[in-house]
Specification:
heterotrimer; A alpha/beta (245); B mainly alpha (235); C mainly alpha (299); A: 245 residues; alpha/beta; Rossmann fold; six-stranded mixed β-sheet; four-stranded antiparallel β-sheet; 10 strands; B: 235 residues; mainly alpha; 0% strand; globular
């Protein structure tokens, strides 16, 4: 079976010379949910931006068999939907409906079909009541769901979520877990929130200084790199106090 | 905050809310022009104009006291200039300034209070406003309150670090720094929006999100209002 | 500086509406040629920034504080045509959503602040930014406020709004103070922005002094028109306004009749032409300036 995402020897350098991605190899298969861990600045978000061609480095990135280059961008972006960390940057249209319809309209759907698709996507995330609302009036959790709807409306095969629990309170986080569980797409979740990742992912990868240094079951990776979400007992607090940032 | 109120008002449902924005904009223009050319001492005409507005407010289901108070923002200007004109002997102009500028403001509030801004912008675009201008205005409105909140936070954060007991306002350099940070954050936010647009296959042009349908009732509304106002004016 | 409805006389607001529409249309076309739709969010967010920035107070001495108006800053970071588009959108939103400025008076406010103000601000920057950046920025910001405020005052006076001379002088002094504050704020913000990322500030070409002769005259005219109108005896301006029929004094009973009257009265027409020429001169200058930028860029 063709992998949904195939990344081979991906290198990317910033303008100031920093090697953001240093030979990354990665595969995502149908039905998988993979967690992406790593310290801030280790290249996780840079990596994600290569999957839909927003950044283009050296190496190969193949999405659903399509090689990512400047001619295939629209096709690739209809296959992989990215939910960004900042929902205010993602919901840039004046109303919820118009924002979710943005993607379908870009894919060439006529206005009424785009609206219908948008409504279906909003129903999938439980936000169909907010059609005419301005994004400013939504809570962080609601914005996250609308952003997800905007991506789902394009009927992607892969969902990429960049720090999806940012600004979400625990109930909203739980709702997001349930919602993501109900979606059949393969998922890539960039997160610091290990418990959230463990609830959804079977596999995890670990980024360190632009290199993908580990790939395995979530628990194994978490143990190996001590990527624990600190529990509040004395032993852990003492341990955390000793760690250096 | 004010905008929250306006957003709430404009989300209502009344015969006035349901009218095509173009019909309302045209009716507003007719009203404003008729009002501008009405003599300040043509009291009967002015009273009828005010009555039309009040009827509109009630039909729209908007809170009259709230709206009339909101329109009073223009009064400091008009009363000040009116006072000067009165003292300079031009009593008619003084009167005209105050009463007409207030009525104009109520009229604008009535239209904006029954039309969500994105819809109003669509109407303006359909009436000939350049698309670039309407889109820029749409984005300004979308991010207006987000960036304003950021500005408040920056002010608060800087004020907390000021160390001067009495002064609540920022020093000049602190304020300039705050503005520069706000500018930079806004710029990077724009970059983030750009990435989000590209991620959803933006092809270079914003597609038209058709939401307007000019119905017979809209035409009837505009014509009726226009005819009535002109009749009143001519009397 | 945002003129509400029913402050200006009908010929004045109508003329300015008629003048602003093509002026803004021209700037929109220019901006459209310079930028793609992908830049629209940037323009929008920058407009939101200006709105928000107006909330931050800068202390300037005992008890007084000023705030950024922003036209010049927008011009220095986005370019003149985009800055006009953003300012126009801001003024429209201020009028509709915040009732700051009238709807019929939009033409006047847009002309004063988004067209004349932005161009007056950009001109010194365009000419001198390569050599004397700080001075150019300060002068540009100063002029943008001074010109737009003076034009507003002039329009009010020519409409016949009574303003005794001392009040006019005080107003001009306040405008000058606001203009100085704008200059100071704009400089410090531009410098801070450059420290963060120099690419965010426009870089006009190294030497534009071939057009210097013509354009110095332009700058002078822009400044002079504003100053002249407001600082000379306000009663004189009012008298001029009355003579031109722009300020209908007592014959309020049939302003429509007055309106038709002046199209037939040839003597009046001559005087009206002379009076409106001042306004149109400023407009023509802006258009010419805009075209000159266009020729330079495409050259």
């Amino acid at each position: 079976m063709t992998p949904l995402i195939e990344v081979r020897d991906l290198y990317y350098q910033y303008e100031d010379g920093t090697q953001a991605l240093d030979g990354v190899n990665f595969t995502l298969n149908v039905g998988e949910t993979v967690a992406v861990f790593g310290a801030n600045g280790s290249g996780k978000t840079t990596f994600v931006l290569h999957l839909n061609g927003i950044l283009r480095g050296q190496g190969h990135v193949r999405v659903c068999g399509i090689e990512v280059n400047k001619d295939t961008l629209v096709r690739v972006r209809s296959k992989v939907g990215v939910v960004f960390q900042d929902s205010d940057e993602q919901l840039f249209m004046p109303t919820v409906l118009e924002d979710v319809a943005f993607g379908p309209l870009n894919l060439g759907l006529p206005s009424d079909q785009a609206i219908a698709t948008a409504k279906t996507a909003l129903a999938q995330v439980g936000m169909e009541h907010a059609l005419g609302k301005a994004p400013y009036h939504l809570s962080a959790g609601e914005k996250r769901r609308v952003a997800l709807a905007g991506v789902l409306a394009m009927q992607p095969e892969i969902l990429v979520l960049d720090e999806p629990t940012t600004f979400l309170d625990p109930p909203a986080q739980r709702n997001l877990v349930h919602l993501l569980e109900s979606l059949s797409q393969a998922k890539l979740i960039v997160t610091h929130h290990t418990r959230f990742a463990a609830a959804l992912a079977t596999r995890a990868v670990f980024f360190e200084k632009g290199k993908l240094v580990a790939d395995g079951p979530v628990d194994e990776i978490v143990q190996r790199f001590n990527w624990i979400y600190p529990a509040l007992d004395a032993a852990d607090l003492r341990y955390s106090a000793q760690r250096r940032f | 905050m004010h905008h929250v109120l306006m957003d709430q008002w404009s989300q209502g449902s009344s015969p006035l809310h349901a009218r095509d924005p173009r019909a309302k904009i045209l009716a507003l223009l007719v009203f404003l022009i008729v009002l501008a050319t009405t003599a300040p001492n043509a009291f009967s005409a002015l009273v009828i104009d005010a009555a039309v507005l009040l009827a509109g407010i009630l039909i729209a289901g908007l809170p009259p006291i709230s709206l009339l108070m909101r329109a009073a923002v223009v009064l400091p200007f008009s009363l000040a200039f009116g006072l000067i004109s009165w003292l300079a002997g031009d009593r008619l102009r003084a009167l005209g300034l105050v009463e007409k500028s207030y009525l104009s403001t109520v009229a604008v509030l009535l239209v904006v209070g029954t039309t969500p801004l994105p819809l109003l912008l669509s109407g303006l675009e359909a009436l000939g406003t350049p698309r670039l201008l309407a889109l820029v205005a749409q984005f300004i409105y979308r991010y207006l309150f987000v960036v304003s909140e950021q500005a408040q936070h920056l002010r608060l954060a800087a004020a907390c670090r000021q160390g001067r007991e009495r002064q609540r306002r920022l020093g000049f350099r602190a304020a300039a720094g705050a503005l520069a940070v706000l500018f930079a954050r806004s710029y990077y936010r724009a970059e983030g929006i750009h990435r989000a647009m590209m991620a959803r296959a933006f092809s270079g042009k914003f597609a038209l999100f058709r939401r307007l349908q000019f119905r017979l009732s809209d035409g009837f509304f505009t014509l009726a209002v226009t005819a009535f106002l002109i009749l009143v004016r001519i009397q | 500086m945002h003129i509400p409805d029913n402050f200006l006389s009908t010929p004045v607001w109508a003329t300015l509406d008629a003048v602003s529409i093509p002026a803004v249309g021209l700037m929109v076309k220019r901006a459209g040629r310079e930028l793609e739709d992908t830049s629209i969010p940037l323009l929008g967010v920058m407009g939101a920034f200006v709105f928000a920035a107006q909330m931050i107070n800068f202390p300037v001495g005992i008890g007084t504080s000023g705030h950024l108006v922003g036209g010049a800053l927008l011009a220095f970071t986005l370019g003149a045509a985009p800055a006009t588009v953003v300012m126009t959108a801001i003024i429209a939103i201020q009028a509709f959503v915040f009732q700051d400025g009238g709807v019929l008076a939009l033409g006047a406010n847009v002309f004063n602040m988004a067209v004349a103000g932005v161009l007056a601000g950009y001109l010194p920057f365009w000419m001198w930014a390569a050599r004397r950046k700080k001075a150019a920025i300060f002068l540009g910001a100063f002029l943008s406020v001074m010109v737009s405020a003076s034009l507003a005052l002039g329009e009010l006076l020519i409409s016949g709004v009574a303003m005794p001379r001392p009040l006019v002088l005080v107003s001009m002094a306040l405008f000058a103070m606001s203009a100085l504050i704008e200059g100071a704020i704009t400089i410090s913000v531009v410098q801070a922005i450059e420290r963060l990322n120099p690419g965010l500030v426009q870089k006009p070409e190294a030497s534009n002094w071939r057009s210097l002769a013509v354009l110095s005259g332009v700058a002078l005219v822009l400044g002079l028109v504003g100053f002249l109108w407001a600082s000379s005896a306000p009663d004189g301006i009012q008298r001029l306004g009355t003579q031109l029929g722009l300020a209908a004094q007592t014959s309020f009973h049939a302003p429509f009749a007055d309106y038709t009257a002046f199209t037939f009265d040839s003597a009046w027409l001559r005087r009206a032409t002379a009076g409106l020429a001042g306004l149109l001169l400023v407009y023509a200058v802006c258009v010419a300036f805009g075209k000159m930028i266009g020729r330079r860029r495409s050259a």
